Sequence to fold (430 residues):
Amino acid sequence: MDLTTLAIVTAALLAYALVSGKLDGSMLTGPLLFVLFGFAMGGGWLNIANINADHSIIHFIAEFTLILVLFTDAARIDFDRVRRDHNLPSRMLIFGLPLAIGGGAILAALIFPQFSMWEAALLAALLAPTDAALGQAVVSAQIVPVRIRQAINIESGLNDGIALPAVLLFAALAGAAAESMPTSDWVKFGLLQVTLGPIVGIALGFLGARLIDAAAEKGWANTSFQGIGILALAIFTYVSAELVGGNGFIASFVGGMVFGNSIRHPCTFLFEFMETEGQLLMLITFLIFGAALLPEGIAHINGQYVLYAVLSLTVIRMLPIAISLLGSGLRLPTYLFLGWFGPRGLASILFVLLILEESVVPHREELLAVTVITVGLSVLLHGITAAPFANAYGRRAAKMGECEETQEVTELPLRIGEIGDKQRNDGVNV
Fold:
């Protein structure tokens, strides 16, 4: 990334910061604008910004972003409250997510007969995580019942970390099959990845929470350095797992869950991170996507890729969600609303950059292109429909009266923005 590119990126961030308040709740979402800007400045049109997805600094940004997203997304979810109040996202994660991966794999195998079984499953897993940031107007719209917008918020906060082991496993199996690797080798590798990573995450997440609690209670650490401490803990957890042969990303996710549900001190520094550094990393990632990945995906576009992308955003998502919510007492508009707002975004982009780019699967280019086209389509469609659909559904929900949709539940922090001063003032823990 040269000085010209850096100037373009920072100018875009400054320009967006100046008008961000006016754009809140509009169809022009941050991810959509930065994807379009990256596409225009990068390889899609003007070719002014020199952003190469294979460059080491791009991989560093992607790796750093994924570590922090996995850690903070998991840390902000209070599992006691989820068990007590939020059965809808639990259903969507326990039943809907596996069904989406299974259904996506079956359709991928039918549409792409050249894919192996593991490649079809890998594509489905890459596109399984959702990103509520693409439809921020939905999860922050007061007109939408709290229970429904929190279902989308909680689901998107956890499904990236839950889908990650499946992505890693299918990528390893697809690569092993292509290279005729002995079964014992990939079994040993997989076991180390999925066992050592969580062990490190549990140990360091709990220890980190206790250390920060002790430092805060004794007045040894101020708020700003508590924030630095949690960022350091996330990176330290990742590195420690990698050093012992585990998977650092899984460790970061598990470490975040344990940290967020063990710490007693109010995590105001975590909220502040999600509102500032988290937004910055997200927008830069979408700009990189638009400049470096989207042109490559469009260059390889064909009818098969578009068909799978459309199915991924509709049938592959909506049918499993509907099945997972059977018997919940929700109305048909809610089924459709929850099914539609499963945008594909940050997690899929980062998985592609860090996992698929380093894999040896035979059809890596095709998998990359389908994922990129699906994410690009999602950024556009979910971005422009978030605000009008949220308002339309909110008005419909208001006419339902007392029903399952309007049951009172506690609110958990969002990934970005709209955290709310009341949560900070009340000292809400993540």
About this structure: Residues 3-426 form a domain with the Na+/H+ antiporter like fold fold (CATH 1.20.1530.20). The longest helix spans residues 183-217. Confidence is low (pLDDT under 50) at residues 417-430.
